[in-house]
User: Fold these one by one.
Assistant:
Number 1:
Amino acid sequence: MLRARVLGCAALVLLAWSLPPLLCAASAAPTAQSGARPGAPLGELPAALTRRPEDLPGAEPERWARFFDPAAQAEIGRSLAPGTLDGMTFAQAAYGQGLFVPALETLHQVLTREPDFPPAWLVAGATYWRLRRYGDAVHAYGRFLAVAPNQVARTHGMGHALYGLGRFADAREHYQRVLAEVTDRAEIWRGLALAELRLGNGEAALGHLDRVLELSPDDGDALTWRAETLLELERFDDALAEAERAAALAPGDPRPRWIAMESLFALGRDDEAEQRQSDWRRLDRFASQRRAIEARLLLEPRQPLLARQLVQNAVDVGDRGLVRAALERLRGAGTTASFHCETSQFALETWLSLGADQEARVAALDIERRCASDASAWQRLALYWSVLGDADRAAEAQRRYLQLTGKGH
């Protein structure tokens, strides 16, 4: 009954580390915006993905033995090849903006200059994982641990990659190593739970998912996996209850409806099961569309029209969490001030269409910050604040509109 899946969106890898001081001190470092170039056309593999990490040169691990010792930072910084720190700063910025291919290209350059440079391998592991290159991610994390064996706490992404390869026992072992150092990260406990579930250890998985929910009580994804685990254990009433809770937290996710459907059929409540089946099929169609859009945005995130389609998909299923995430993706699809002003106005319209007053108010405040010289934006804001009954903000927005259009004299 359990279908193979890679880790869900809530298990996205986080770098989980602070850059050592020497990496934060690079002067005149480029930004990801200034150095990133468009990805390859659809269907053509970017150059960064045709080079395997195994092909990158190696060096003496002993050189980096003191890298994470603060007392050694200045000495190590002086010994680095020119361009290493600037390249690393760019790669970090690109990764943070979802520009994974440019990040990887730069990391390859850094590692060619400085083989086995620990931060480069760590970020490379995370980047390969985000690009779904799980084998390459495992290799990159392995290279990091070869030169920084005491830094396993930073490598939970290796567990995610091992899981993605179907190496569930290895993933479990790695998560356990990380949890020996870090115990308060929900995504690590989730990864361990899913590895146990795939290995047939449902009771152990439930215990780990309980820990996830202690750390993140409103985690709909964890509730969904808990419901699926209960379904596997044939605890159908419990599975149904958890699935209904998960559906309330994540109304756009088809999985809770599927679990509820299976549970209801098992309980002999066929009429209710058929209703859940109808809901599941409808939501699954939207989920398939989302996956297709996200796959296209993975290699080239700077596609605003496609990102807007992702927002509309989330609006259509009425899932505010998905809407929030899609709007964030849209925000990353452009770089100019006018684009961000336009996106903030689009966000306001989106939240208003959902009747989400609190989120709409946040978007309106964002427009005030981003659209300082856009007269039409201030005109819309004046109307919006007036409807909300905020007379002071409405008057200020109207004043700014008149000032910008020259009608206030």
Note: The two ends are 72 Å apart (CA to CA).
Number 2:
Amino acid sequence: MKKSFYGLIIIWLCLFNVTAFSNTNNIAYEITFDSNKDNEIIYRDHIFEVYERVTYGIDDDKVGTVINKNLDMFKLDSEDQISYINSTIIIIENNGLGSNISGNFNYVKCKSEVVVKSWVKEKFDEIID
């Protein structure tokens, strides 16, 4: 009885470990612009390009560390203030009295497509052919 109970627990853990260990890495950005400039789109595009360059090929659990070490790359101007707090890149452009935009970088990072292989389907295909 104990062996079957432990066996069921092990099977349950194996089947549901995907949700237990799923990635929750969600890097966000918040930009407060200068009131005298009108370059919101340029700045947003710049930080997306830098994010792609900096995080390309990096494991999800190390993205925060890599971003924190390369914060200066996200600046367009030397007077901009930038920080990385709670998985959010916070940028204040010059006086910071202009508009404010925020979002996240989720759609930028491409994940490889999962192809499900079934040995049962392959065997049936062999039998049919």
Note: The chain has one domain: 25-129.
Number 3:
Amino acid sequence: MNEMEDRLRAALSARAELVQPEHLAPLTPAVDLRPRWQSPWVLLATAAVVLLVLGAVFQGLARDPRSDDVAPRPGQPELELPADVGRGWERNDLDTPPRLDLDGDGVDEKVVFRGEPTPDFDGRFRLETTLSSTGEDAYGIAEVGTTIATNVLDPIDADGDGDQELVLYYDDAEAVGGGGRPLVFDLRDGLLVQAVPEHPDLLQRGQVPLPGTASAHYEMVRLHDYWFEDGALWSSRTVDAYAAGNMTLLRPERYEVDAYEWRLGDDGVLRAGDASCRVMFPEGQEPCGSEAEEGFLPYINTVATETFGIGERADFREGYRYSARLEAFADPSLVVEGDDGRTVRYDDFAIGDPRISTVQPMGVDGASFFVTSASDPSYVEVLAQDGDQLRSLQAVGEIDLLDEGDVRTWLTPNGSVVTVTAQEDGSWIAWTWQHVRSGMTALPWGTVCFDDVDDPSTARRC
């Protein structure tokens, strides 16, 4: 039996006690008949109906909240109120306390930090301030990865209510390529409450691996970032994924991202707006729409053409400084003389007419060489110094070091060894070679199209 039935039964019992035996006596012809609506039975039934309706209304308006009213919906981020701890923690006076208008009265509040004492300085901070509008104290709790110092970011007004939200930097030691994310604190009923991102994977900075792309030498990652713009918090994620490995990230100078502005709801949840397209480049960013090809392509469209052959020599002055010459007795021999006094030779050419580029392949400690053949256009070889000897680097990984048919290879003026492999749709995947312990491996650098693959300068976006 529920509460409404109890109330109705009690009301009916109370009304029934008003009906006495004389009310139920037989009517006589001498007594004037009352209108029907004055009958006690009608009044009793009417009262029951009224009580029933009122009970239903009050049950809907004034009942105690049920668990399904206060609990977050499935998948909804849950707001956590800060615990009132840390009043006695030591105040952090190493950093300048931030000042911002937390209560929207036009006067900035000063926020001070008290660090939780832990052996590794990895505890929490208690945030404290006094509101200028009321004189009341407000507090919050923040975990930013360390209590050695605080990194206060630009304040924002993510909910558009005229006051500002405090933003702190969280130092994520496990993130790759920068790491970290912003923590937003909103003043709610005298508490500095940390807002909860609906999609935290979109609000971070660094290189985020794509699941299932890891190989022995690289993995594909998307680049995430965030920034502040006109009092708002923005974040971005690259449209394309890029290869990261061997302490190298392969991305073009200009690249497209999906950008999101974050808004704070009344429920304390940060939500990303609709994605807008932007182009990122070293000097800044701009909306998508530019038709310019330059900067979007990997640096593959120029070729280092100068070489030396038998009886000739060249000097290499960048990085490890050395000179090299090709001698020929029965077979060609490469002699390398370092400025440090070391001399090494290489006599194991598989061809009789090597041509050696005057540009050193990059990414190799010591002397290195890009070797082609004067008579065989498909021949490509890379030599690298290993102690007191030169050795030919063997290709390991997904592709071979070739220059024929659907696989083309060349050296760029900045020392990148580039290979492009043809795809069924007419596009080409560009790869760049990296020196690894077991030889050399190619990392994907992007997709390009050519008007003429024999002329790398015709490379363009597909």
Note: Confidence is low (pLDDT under 50) at residues 18-71.
Number 4:
Amino acid sequence: MDIPENDRRFLERRRKLATTWNATGMMVLVGMGVVLTVFFIQAPSLVNPYHVVARLQAGELEPRYLELMAVMLPVAVLLCFFVMAAGVLLSFAVFANERRYIAILTGLLAADRPEADTMPPAFNAGPDKPDAH
């Protein structure tokens, strides 16, 4: 059961990521929660639409503040689309790694059992292998 060196490095990187992600992800979520809490306390107009509506109805918003909000709305919408596109692009990288991982495992299984079925060509493509299509 011989694994090529580049596949060994790939599996080692995946193992490290898998073992550290829970703690890292939790720290990121806690940090985001802290920032959101600070915004709710210090600048509720940035994150609380009910606060903004109440100030609008009370006539407490200055015209320049309304102008700033109107200018920032398209920026916020574009930023949301940028974040969604980044998520989709990240998904491409994640699935490319998964195809490589499946190819490594399939190769190991095939080495142990020559009669084992191989994966379809699409699963054998990876970042360092051209797609079979």
Note: The radius of gyration is 25 Å.
